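User: Can you fold this complex?
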Amino acid sequence: MEPDMAHRKIRAGIVGGGQGSFIGAVHRIAAELDGQAEIVAGAMSTDARRAEASAQAWFLKRAYTSFQQMAEEESRAADGIDVVIIATPNHMHYPVAKAFLERGIHVISDKPMTLNVHEAEELVALVERSGRIFALTHNYTGYPAVRQARALVRQGEIGTIRKVLVEYIQDWLLEPVERTGNKQASWRTDPAQAGISGCVGDIGTHAENLLTFITDLKIASLCADLTTFVEGRALEDDANMLLRLENGGKGILTCSQIAAGEENNLSIRIYGSKAGLAWQQMEPNTLIFKPYGRPQQILRSGQAYMSDDAKAATRLPPGHPEGFLEAFANIYKMVISDIRREATGEKPLGGYPTAADGLRGMRFVAKVVESSQRGSIWMEVE
Amino acid sequence: MEPDMAHRKIRAGIVGGGQGSFIGAVHRIAAELDGQAEIVAGAMSTDARRAEASAQAWFLKRAYTSFQQMAEEESRAADGIDVVIIATPNHMHYPVAKAFLERGIHVISDKPMTLNVHEAEELVALVERSGRIFALTHNYTGYPAVRQARALVRQGEIGTIRKVLVEYIQDWLLEPVERTGNKQASWRTDPAQAGISGCVGDIGTHAENLLTFITDLKIASLCADLTTFVEGRALEDDANMLLRLENGGKGILTCSQIAAGEENNLSIRIYGSKAGLAWQQMEPNTLIFKPYGRPQQILRSGQAYMSDDAKAATRLPPGHPEGFLEAFANIYKMVISDIRREATGEKPLGGYPTAADGLRGMRFVAKVVESSQRGSIWMEVE
Amino acid sequence: MEPDMAHRKIRAGIVGGGQGSFIGAVHRIAAELDGQAEIVAGAMSTDARRAEASAQAWFLKRAYTSFQQMAEEESRAADGIDVVIIATPNHMHYPVAKAFLERGIHVISDKPMTLNVHEAEELVALVERSGRIFALTHNYTGYPAVRQARALVRQGEIGTIRKVLVEYIQDWLLEPVERTGNKQASWRTDPAQAGISGCVGDIGTHAENLLTFITDLKIASLCADLTTFVEGRALEDDANMLLRLENGGKGILTCSQIAAGEENNLSIRIYGSKAGLAWQQMEPNTLIFKPYGRPQQILRSGQAYMSDDAKAATRLPPGHPEGFLEAFANIYKMVISDIRREATGEKPLGGYPTAADGLRGMRFVAKVVESSQRGSIWMEVE
Amino acid sequence: MEPDMAHRKIRAGIVGGGQGSFIGAVHRIAAELDGQAEIVAGAMSTDARRAEASAQAWFLKRAYTSFQQMAEEESRAADGIDVVIIATPNHMHYPVAKAFLERGIHVISDKPMTLNVHEAEELVALVERSGRIFALTHNYTGYPAVRQARALVRQGEIGTIRKVLVEYIQDWLLEPVERTGNKQASWRTDPAQAGISGCVGDIGTHAENLLTFITDLKIASLCADLTTFVEGRALEDDANMLLRLENGGKGILTCSQIAAGEENNLSIRIYGSKAGLAWQQMEPNTLIFKPYGRPQQILRSGQAYMSDDAKAATRLPPGHPEGFLEAFANIYKMVISDIRREATGEKPLGGYPTAADGLRGMRFVAKVVESSQRGSIWMEVE
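Assistant: Here's the predicted assembly.
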């Protein structure tokens, strides 16, 4: 416990996310958006020149080329970091998280949580032992409208959930761009760095997480059909699956990275015995509420009628669009608040995805891949 | 061949569709919309009083209470009908079609084509023997934007089709309205009148038909999960299924009659190696064309840049919305034109769903139901 | 009074609207859509061959080349027409209406009502003297969502109306198509046939009519700025105007026929002390209701919660789009019902635009043109 | 010139924007978003306790209660601020700007630029004399889609601009909230703090600025009708106006703060001789391009086909929504870049609204108010 943490910004470090990375800058902006944290150290590349240049571009105080060294030095420094951000390819998530957790440093990590289920199980145990905060950036749960959707479900406005349609479709891998220098495409289609799944691991896990976040229902079983449409690609770039939820509800999850003309279309529709809900990430400030027999309602983030949870995730008045970065920053906002609480002995409040969510996501990926490999048969999930 | 048919309206009769029926009035309007046909006779109810009242409401010349009698008398009358419209519950489609085809009268029938596959096979043979025109009112294929979608696929603008997402979701059976006097709900949830399937037979067949109409691809195999959410209902009211197309493409088809807040949401999205397409029945005059890497285009019915086939299905300038009835009437327009051609010995041009489509639809329904009953396993679809 | 009219379709004749005309076919479809009327006679062209061909294409019983002759013969025939449809250029509206009204035949006329205010005043008097029904096809008032909007205003849901934004913008005259064979463009830009105004007379009158229909408020004064953007055109093709309403509310009306990319965009937004409303003709089945401080509601035609007036204008269940023709047919439906009522001595129910609306529209046009010609000054209206 | 500025963040101070202020937090986030600047000092309130608390909440190094004192001390400090942010009510814009400019500190100021035209003229001269950068936060010009719109106009894709429809409508002053403790409402409706105009000064100026930014056309003359709908309010809360552009094009500008159900609806539509454009702030990442006779195109920020200027204003891949804060930050990004350039003797690149824009805006407001006061007559602008 550090008594003076209230009088300063939280200090963060970052592993990965160096120059040219999309997600590195996202983490930086999201972490610092509310003025409650600053990134002061980074191991942004193992290449010394790139590590240095990346750190300079952000005016970081300390640059490393090794995350182990960073973990050691930061954990000993008087002004060392409070939290580390993991923005590496998947295969590095676990070793990096381990190095920092073991040295008492909180962790905010990209998803999917680990390379495989085994690592995920170990990480869950490690987090528990460490007593540190571990947050997983299923950032789409940070949108106010998503939190409003969850609130409506909890309030019983939807009734018993019967049907869920969730999709996450893009087109950025429609061509074999991994062979023409797209660095992110390169590692995301490489099993050694990405794990056993491409599309499902990358974006299907967001869809699974969103479904469970809003409905508070787990997937009981699934039947998945994975396809690699681009010749020579080592991992699937498209997936369709049938879902059965733990409450008897049914669902569909589809994700794709070869859906021509789709940008970043994460959408969910939920149908209950009393009402329906629809949300689309590309128009994120709107939630459509569809009570049976009554007019549909357009719920808008920032409005006074929104739930407290949605309001807490909103910075601007209605009609001033907040987007991807703001939603991402909402995850950070909750984590930073919990880091402060933890420092003064208060109980963390949560509200963001945790290691348990990450483990569930990794098991989901494993079952999806197994289902498809065994002829798209039904698999129980846990 | 009747030489003077060019100088008069086509004469139509109708079986079913009496007062209180939704679809009866739809057929009347669609048949007569272009001023090329008139309904002159009807066996609109087996109840004499209702049959008479229904006929009077439409100013019909001849009212019957028996379709057999109607078939016999009309086929012998000098001014007898050229074509019969079948607007009955499913179990009557086949016997009525048979009665009129055997007497040389063309048939326009509601879908699904018959009560089961066996009847469908017989009907296909019967149509062939009769030499008469048989059209199935998969009316959604009548929309100009749907025909434009097909034209774009045929022109190669979409490339190889990889993924198809088609859905048809409604909420009119969310409550057990079949027990509270909704006549259509009553027969559509009764296996004796509707057949082995509820939701899939009623609207899933439209989705299947639309998919094949636009893509010219058949479903090779499927895995279906049917659910009856409303207690006590004898047939499924919701269905999710995975599809594999004959060309290696993958797909999802979902249909529901318990999706709270959904009106009549038939939508299709098609993704190919070059571009995507999206169409929604509830905003039918718009087709979104999504070429990879270029701006999406909003194609609008009535515009000069539309295909000839789309233009032929359009009556108004752009921005003057045409809807469900006009699309339905487009099926009639093509059938009426073919009836005239047939009368003068010309080859019918088609363009509307036929008995072959109806048979494929019935086989689709049978496989869907079998898949679900056997534990949602994969089934080949011929 | 004709006692047997209940047992037959209403008989209609048409003047103008011959082959190649857009609006002729619209009238035919709208008149016959509900199976309550049939067009049996026409003076569709003064060119004998074209008149004959047009009549044959519609299987009319009687073709004329002179509307005077038609008026005389039809008024004397045992099976003569009950009502005449006027589908000519503007300058013929008045003489044709006069000829038929004076012979006791009801009239349905295209807008604007006459060539000028003087004719409009005479026509109002003539209609009154004749005791015949006169309906003006401000067809956009036929949409269920428009009628719902009026119902909400009447019920006080909007509060005191403060601001109205109405627009009607198209692009069909962006190029000088009147010089390259577009027949409609030719007469609509010719003062001798169209009157003193182009764009305002053609579509601005629809906007004015819609405003007053929904709000029940008249325009008290206006300031208009008319422009002819296409060189050599004799009448304005664009207009902007400020409005002051009789209740102190303010408004804007803009109309254009040179707004690139606009099809037939008639839209209205109304803001009151309690709520707002928005409707767009190109997505006509949706009305957005915007209560202050509460979620916006999406009101949809066909739903049970709609007003009786909206329901009476709806033929299909929700989600089955009805469009321009159906709205047009709703005007006919009300007129036909009144023709039957009139025949049995019942009081007509109205609900459709009348000669009084037509006169108000003509005065509006006159003031708009005068305002603009005098330097876009403010003019009192009436 | 400070040679080492490249190696540190730009230091900013803020005047106004203390706790409870909406716009203060917006400036902080926007200034710091790209990691190139940090706010280190503030005179956020004249109330000492509030000034201190506001500064602490942001972890500022130096808190002042007087902007004059701040200007003096910061201009002398070794680590003094490079730029000041003005986030006060309108009447303070000019004195604060003056104080800092005269001490060689760059200025970023809220709009409208000053309390009146006289101050605006003085400020323009002062900026010129000072050689400092002065940027006005007409933040909506920061959206990538707005910059794309300007690029399309410049490339000639729209042709000669004929008609512009711009609106900015809200409902936050529908009730007299200035009397019930809404602090922003209180000063915005007070002539002593807001100036001679309420609605037009606050949001109408954004609309005017957007119009000119995209089209590069000035308003030549206007006719305005201002209304105060809420009783007892001292300034107008609604305005409608006709515009004539310097090139002969025509336009409409409407703004309102009493338009029930409207959040922050700034929208613009531009119609040229070749194509149209439409953009709405509430769905800011989409620009509709409407070439005459061809399909409309949906241009999306982040796509490779966008202009360089639009791309430079984009941080995320397509489909990852960027919103109000990101657009605001784009203004800062350009200003910060120019501050660095200025420090090394390079010519500033601009791209953001300047004092000249601010002066034009103030003259616009003055003419609007005069027009309305003199009976809504036409006024030349400049």
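DSSP finds twelve helices and 15 strands in chain C. Residues 324-343 of chain C form the longest helix (20 residues).
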